[in-house]
Amino acid sequence: MKYYQYIRIVLILIPIIILAVLFYKDFNPAGYLKVDYDFCRENPFVSKFSPTGRVLEIEKIKTVAGKDCQQKMVVDPVYFDVRLTQKFDQARLKLWYQKDLVTPLRIGPAINLSNWQWQLKDINYLLTTQNFGEGWLVGTAEYNLKNIQPDKNILRFLISSPGLDLSAKEIVFGRVAIEFIKEPLTKNNFFERLKEWIKFSNIYYALN
């Protein structure tokens, strides 16, 4: 009899523990979220680049590090979405890409989609990397998200390169990583963070 009771207790505890872990990760008490999209694998936080036609099909390539993927942008502008679990104060974007020196490249989140306002920033060259092969660059940009109004819990990014199609050139992307940062959870901001998490959760939008 005790054996079956133990099994029953374990079966009850397992889903509770799983839900607790998922809640902890979603609630994010550290105030830090990093999303990383390498074009080979779908990411639950980052959408694919779109629309089709402005970006070509994802290509698999052989690199120094092994097998990787890349995607070419041929027409401006291009978009991708990031699903957030809550509102953040700052974002740091790092991009692995190929382009020539004269082709402009700016990326930024939507400040207000309804008014078509964007916080576009130049991608600042950081270093040259050989991980993908010859000609790959790494660049960064930082954003202030305090006045950003996400569409529900989705933050849309715009990739801008005016005149790209007229120049018959292309920009190649190999990886994008974004760090989202805010003040860590404390006893003083617990209820504010909880309210914010509920507002950003899928449950909130399902009820509204």
UniProtKB/TrEMBL annotation:
Superkingdom as given in the UniProt entry: Bacteria
Residues spanning the membrane: 6-24
Keyword Transmembrane: yes
Keyword list, A-Z: Membrane, Transmembrane, Transmembrane helix
Protein name, entry field: Uncharacterized protein
